[in-house]
Each structure stands twice: as C-alpha cells, then as structure tokens.
C-alpha cells in the first residue's frame, strides 16, 4: 500500500504541550499555559511525595505506593497532548505517551507483584525529574521568559535520565514476565469462536526487544537537538 | 527554427549538472530527461524530477518545451526521486506473496502447527472454501495487473515494495494461520452464514472486476488521459451513479464477505485497515475528479453511497 511518507524525525521529548507556532489566539494560549502549569505542579507533587515517603520510611523500598494515584493521573493526563496540537509530531508524541501509559497501566498497575520492585522507582524518578523540567520549559516558553537554566536542564539531564528510565522500564517488564505467564494475564487461547489468540507474555518480550532499535535512535536524536539548541555556547567561548 | 538551450541545476545545491544546446522547441520533458540521462547514466528518466522552480511541482513528461514559461535559455531544477521500481513489478510481488503464503498454511507445511498436524487437511469444509476464495481473489488481482490495468505512473519509489509486501504478506500469514489452524472454530450460524458470505463475496468480486474493465476502457492503450467514469450496460457498474470509486466499495464488500465466511477476527482487522486506506485513496480521487471536471455528478460520494 502506498501510504504517505512519515514525518521527518522530531525531538524525542513530546512537543505536544507547546502549541502551534503561529499563535492560536488568546484563549487557546491561556489554556496551554494553564495545562503546562498544572502538569508541572502535578509532577512536583509526585516528587515531593517520593521525598516525604522516603524520609518517613527510611528506605526507598515500596515508594511506588505513596505516589501511585497522582502518577496514574498525571501520566494519563498527558494523553491530552496527543490531540494534535502540533499535527506534525502527533506520531512521535503519541508513541511516547502511549508507551508511558502502557508501562503505568498495562505493566505496573496490572501486575501487582512488580509494584514493590526497585526498578519501578528507577523509572518513576526518571520520569518525574524529566517531566518537571519539560513542563516548566513549555510554561516559560509560552510566557516568553525562558531562563537559560531550564533550557540547559532540558537538553542535558536526559543524558542520564533517559538511560535510567529505560533501564527501570525494561527491568520492570522483565520482572512481570513470570507472573504474566503463570496467570495468562490479558491472553486469549484457541479454540474460541472468533478464531483469534493473543499471548501477552510474548507481546511483552517483543516490547522489550523493540527498545533495541528505538532507544538509540531517540537518544542520539536528543544529542543532535542538544547541539543545535545549546550549540551557541561554544561560539561565545570562541569569541573570547 | 530557433533552438533552445537547456541548463539543468541541482534543486538543492544549485550546481550546474548539465547543459544541452540546440534543443528543439517541440522537445518534451520526457525527451530532455533522456538527454540528461545520457550525461548522468545513474539517473534514469524514471527517477528524475524536473521542475521550473526548486521547490515547485514536477513537470510532466508530456510537457513541451516551447509551451513552458521559459526563455530561449531554459533553466530547470533536478531532484533525484531515488531508486524506482515499476508498478507492475510491485503489484505482482505484493499479490503473489499472499497467494503462496496462504497455501503454505492451508497445506499445513511443517514448523507452523504441531508436528502431528503436518500435511493434514482441515475437517471443516468452510476452510477449503475459504482457501479457494482467497486464492481466487489473488489470482484475479495478478491477472488484472498483467492484462487489465492501465497505469498512469510507470514507477514508484523502491522502498514502497518493502512496505507494501510487509503489509500484504504479513496479514496473509496472520489470517491464514488462524483459518487453517487445527483448533479453528467454524462460523456460529453454520451453512447459512457461509452461503450468504459466499454470495456477497462472489457478487463483489464480479463487481470489482466490472469496474476495472470499465476504467480500462476509459483510457486508450498507452495513453494517460483521465475521463469521468459512467454506468454502462453492465448492472454492476450502475453503482457509478452513487460512488466515485466503486472498485474500492466492491473490494470492501469482498472482504466483509470473507470475514463473515471465516468468522475470524484477524480477517476483520485486515478488512478494517484496508477500508481505512481505501477511504483515504477514494477521498483523494474524488477530490481530483471535482477539481478537474466542472460537470462532475454531484450525487456521488467517494466510497460509500451517501455516507463517506
């Protein structure tokens, strides 16, 4: 089938919350600022929740439970970004949000046994720091008052946070495998009257395998974006 | 007779790629492409895009030099379309795959199902019927590609063949796996359901073929003309009164019939995905018809009468 060509590569981090470049009108602009402020606040709540729970318990074990509800709420809320505010990056935005929502609901929520795993904490911390920086980046950009520190943080922190998050995600899926196989979670076997089968265990393994081609592409794309956005720093030093 | 000079620049770098002097005023873009090919043998005419403006639309092969808005020294911009492959080759490969792949599952060749089922036959007669219908459908497509269709473009980008074959071959394998599975469950309403499904399938196969023949007859051999299709004496073409692309309508109908016949969810998915893609194509075609022809019949919808 001759489908239209896919869009060119976009920044790995979703641009859905930034809005159309040409200025969508005062009401829409206000809505976007509000959305990004709310999301920044939400992820700050999660961050604070993690810190407080850690201090209260004295260990980082099982911190997932202390932020389970806001995590589900705000991560799922990001689906609003896929509305096509920036039509050209809907595909990449959509993919990123869907994979996060998948990890949150179809893996962590669905397989109770992995919720106490340390790997969950690993990706929750990575997502939390990333999203706080990202949404405040959008907020300040929309208000035309972007501190360089935020811009720098957005294009630098990913260097550590991205691999950290990916590691947490992969380890969590891996931990879920034996339970999914044992219980046949989300799986359908033959025979049935719709002549269809689905093995969630195999599906999870294939999802893990998909990280191999996808992660390096996205990671190096971010590096290229970093060079483009922060590149002028080198020019200043040359002038001196 | 005044001769033209033609220079061809790279659309991106603006480098001078080729200079042709003493070009006839009535030379076509196609002929210029052949001349350009001589000096740059790696760019055969099918992969050349020649335009008046670096970011503009491609000129057609039939365009004549002296009718273009250029001076006696004409400047054209060239873009490489990448490796090309002929439509006929793509279609034949796309369709031969499902035909053969389905049969591999039907005959239960080893390594698909458990070894005790190797080379056994299904005990459900609907499975045999489904194989005949599926095979008939793809044989029909192959024959139409060879003898019926008249293509307006000779080629498409090479990467399309990988995309297209993945789609057709992948879905064929997925459907065939379940239909020919030893644990296949026949349709809930038995013979009634299968009979109704077969009638729908055959009706739509004949319909689809009728449309292909009608469209072919609109276009004389070797030409690329476009005309409005109208209903003919063949009742299967009367749907042209209500629809711009009835070939897609009938194709949808065929696959709905096949879904009903096999009662297989993967077949339903394939039908749905195909329907979405055909709707996109039908809307595009409908829009081009409206743009090109002032007197285009207003009652027609792109693919589904009155609905879509």
Automatic annotation (TrEMBL), chain A:
GO cellular-component term (any): endoplasmic reticulum membrane
Pathway assigned in UniProt: Lipid metabolism; fatty acid biosynthesis
Keywords: Endoplasmic reticulum, Fatty acid biosynthesis, Fatty acid metabolism, Lipid biosynthesis, Lipid metabolism, Lyase, Membrane, Transmembrane, Transmembrane helix
Compartments, as annotated in UniProt: Endoplasmic reticulum membrane; Membrane
Enzyme class: lyase
A GO BP entry: very long-chain fatty acid biosynthetic process
GO MF, one example: very-long-chain (3R)-3-hydroxyacyl-CoA dehydratase activity
Reaction equations catalysed: (3R)-hydroxyhexadecanoyl-CoA = (2E)-hexadecenoyl-CoA + H2O; a very-long-chain (3R)-3-hydroxyacyl-CoA = a very-long-chain (2E)-enoyl-CoA + H2O
E.C. designation(s): 4.2.1.134
Membrane-related topology note: Multi-pass membrane protein
Transmembrane feature ranges: 28-55, 155-180, 200-220
Database matches in Pfam families: PTPLA
Top-level taxon in the UniProt lineage: Eukaryota
Family (UniProt): Belongs to the very long-chain fatty acids dehydratase HACD family.
Described function: Catalyzes the third of the four reactions of the long-chain fatty acids elongation cycle. This endoplasmic reticulum-bound enzymatic process, allows the addition of two carbons to the chain of long- and very long-chain fatty acids/VLCFAs per cycle. This enzyme catalyzes the dehydration of the 3-hydroxyacyl-CoA intermediate into trans-2,3-enoyl-CoA, within each cycle of fatty acid elongation. Thereby, it participates to the production of VLCFAs of different chain lengths that are involved in multiple biological processes as precursors of membrane lipids and lipid mediators.
Protein name: Very-long-chain (3R)-3-hydroxyacyl-CoA dehydratase
UniProtKB/TrEMBL annotation, chain B:
Subcellular location: Endoplasmic reticulum membrane
Main location: endoplasmic reticulum
Family membership: Belongs to the steroid 5-alpha reductase family.
Pfam family, one: TECR_N
Function: Involved in both the production of very long-chain fatty acids for sphingolipid synthesis and the degradation of the sphingosine moiety in sphingolipids through the sphingosine 1-phosphate metabolic pathway. Catalyzes the last of the four reactions of the long-chain fatty acids elongation cycle. This endoplasmic reticulum-bound enzymatic process, allows the addition of 2 carbons to the chain of long- and very long-chain fatty acids/VLCFAs per cycle.
Entry GO terms, CC: endoplasmic reticulum membrane
InterPro entries in alphabetical order: 3-oxo-5_a-steroid_4-DH_C, SRD5A/TECR, TECR-like_N, Ubiquitin-like_domsf
Enzyme nomenclature, EC number: 1.3.1.93
Membrane-spanning residues: 85-107, 166-184, 196-215, 236-258, 264-282
Entry protein name: Very-long-chain enoyl-CoA reductase
Catalytic class of the enzyme: oxidoreductase
Catalytic activity: (2E,7Z,10Z,13Z,16Z,19Z)-docosahexaenoyl-CoA + NADPH + H(+) = (7Z,10Z,13Z,16Z,19Z)-docosapentaenoyl-CoA + NADP(+); octadecanoyl-CoA + NADP(+) = (2E)-octadecenoyl-CoA + NADPH + H(+); (2E)-hexadecenoyl-CoA + NADPH + H(+) = hexadecanoyl-CoA + NADP(+); (2E,7Z,10Z,13Z,16Z)-docosapentaenoyl-CoA + NADPH + H(+) = (7Z,10Z,13Z,16Z)-docosatetraenoyl-CoA + NADP(+)
Keywords noted in UniProt: Acetylation, Endoplasmic reticulum, Fatty acid biosynthesis, Fatty acid metabolism, Lipid biosynthesis, Lipid metabolism, Membrane, NADP, Oxidoreductase, Phosphoprotein, Transmembrane, Transmembrane helix
Functional pathway: Sphingolipid metabolism; Lipid metabolism; sphingolipid metabolism; Lipid metabolism; fatty acid biosynthesis
Membrane topology: Multi-pass membrane protein
């Amino acid at each position: 089938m001759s489908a239209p060509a896919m869009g060119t590569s976009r920044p790995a981090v979703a641009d859905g919350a930034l809005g159309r470049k040409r200025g969508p009108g005062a009401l829409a602009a206000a809505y976007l600022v509000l959305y990004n402020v709310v999301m920044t606040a939400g992820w700050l709540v999660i961050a604070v929740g993690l810190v407080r729970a850690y201090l209260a318990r004295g260990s980082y074990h099982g911190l997932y439970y202390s932020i389970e509800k806001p995590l589900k709420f705000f991560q799922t809320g990001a689906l609003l970004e896929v509305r096509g505010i920036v039509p050209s990056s809907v595909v990449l935005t959509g993919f990123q949000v869907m994979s996060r929502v998948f990890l949150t609901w179809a893996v962590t929520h669905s397989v109770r046994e992995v919720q106490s795993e340390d790997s969950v904490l690993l990706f929750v911390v990575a997502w939390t720091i990333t999203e706080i920086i990202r949404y405040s980046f959008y907020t300040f950009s929309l208000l035309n008052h972007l501190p360089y520190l935020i811009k720098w943080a957005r294009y630098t922190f990913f260097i550590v946070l991205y691999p950290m998050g990916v590691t947490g995600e992969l380890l969590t899926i891996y931990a879920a495998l034996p339970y999914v196989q044992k219980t046949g979670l989300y799986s359908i076997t033959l025979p049935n009257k719709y002549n269809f089968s689905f093995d969630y265990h195999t599906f999870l393994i294939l999802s893990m395998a998909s990280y191999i081609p996808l992660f390096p592409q996205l990671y190096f794309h971010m590096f290229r974006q970093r060079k483009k956005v922060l590149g002028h720093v080198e020019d200043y030093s040359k002038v001196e | 007779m005044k001769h033209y000079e033609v220079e061809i620049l790279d659309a991106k770098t603006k480098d001078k790629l080729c200079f042709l002097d003493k070009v006839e005023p009535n030379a076509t873009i196609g002929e210029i492409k052949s001349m350009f090919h001589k000096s740059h043998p790696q760019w055969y005419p099918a992969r050349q895009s020649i335009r008046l403006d670096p970011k503009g639309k491609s000129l057609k092969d039939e365009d004549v030099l002296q009718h273009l808005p250029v001076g006696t020294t004409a400047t054209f911009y060239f873009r490489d379309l990448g490796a090309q492959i002929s439509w006929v080759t793509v279609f034949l490969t796309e369709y031969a795959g499902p035909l053969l792949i389905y049969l591999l599952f039907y005959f239960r060749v080893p390594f698909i199902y458990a070894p005790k089922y190797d080379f056994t036959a299904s005990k459900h007669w609907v499975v045999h019927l489904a194989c005949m219908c599926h095979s008939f459908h793809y044989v029909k497509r192959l024959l139409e590609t060879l003898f019926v269709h008249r293509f307006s473009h000779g080629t498409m980008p090479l990467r399309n063949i990988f995309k297209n074959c993945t789609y057709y071959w992948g879905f064929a394998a997925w459907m065939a796996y379940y239909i020919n599975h030893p644990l296949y469950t026949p349709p809930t309403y038995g013979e009634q359901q299968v009979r109704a499904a077969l009638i729908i399938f055959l009706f739509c196969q004949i319909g689809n073929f009728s449309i292909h023949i009608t469209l072919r007859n609109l276009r004389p051999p070797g030409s690329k003309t476009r005309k409005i299709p109208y209903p003919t004496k063949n009742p299967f073409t009367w749907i042209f009164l209500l629809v711009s692309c009835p070939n897609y309508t009938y194709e949808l109908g065929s696959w709905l019939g096949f879904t009903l016949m096999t009662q297989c969810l993967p077949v339903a998915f394939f039908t749905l995905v195909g329907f979405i893609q055909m709707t996109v194509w039908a809307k595009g075609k409908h829009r081009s018809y409206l743009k090109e022809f002032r007197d285009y019949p207003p009652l027609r919808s792109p693919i589904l009468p009155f609905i879509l």
